[in-house]
Amino acid sequence: MSSSVASSQPTDQTDDAADHDKGALAEEADQTDISMLSITDGQNERGIPRVKFVEDISSFAESFTPPASAELLIGAFSDLFSKFKAYETNLSQKRLNYQQKIPEIEKSLLLVNHLKK
Q1: What is the pLDDT at residue 20?
Q2: pLDDT at 21 over 70
Q3: Secondary structure of the chain as H, E, C letters
Q4: Could you tell me whether strands 40-43 and 49-51 are parallel, antiparallel, or unpaired per DSSP bridges?
Q5: CA 75, CA 25: separation in Å to the nearest integer?
Q6: Model's pTM, two decimal places?
Q7: How far apart are CA 79 and CA 2, in angstroms?
Q8: Within the chain, what is the greatest distance between any pair of CA atoms?
């Protein structure tokens, strides 16, 4: 029994450390003025954001008040990446739907051309 108690203590300490890190990151996110507008550069005609190219990460992080940490920047770009994956899924589904409609459209076009004659 004592071995299970000993093995659970490091896990509890690890969980406490992870909770503390999450809390510190959440607090930093509240204090740092970072938004999608600060990492994007407008959007294209479909409403998909254009990502700013960042040459110097250090100066980019320092441009926020207070300066953004690497974790906060990674989180912001991860959120943006998730949005891009959602756009990709949506566009792939639309493409598949349109490809499935092609045979029916071709049949309709043949019928219209036949009726014109």
Answers
A1: 59
A2: no
A3: CHHHHHHHHHHHHHHHHHHHHHHHHHHHHHHCCCCHHHHEEEECCCCCEEECCCCCHHHHHHCCCCCCCHHHHHHHHHHHHHHHHHHHHHHHHHHHHHHHHHHHHHHHHHHHHHHHC
A4: antiparallel
A5: 10
A6: 0.60
A7: 43
A8: 91
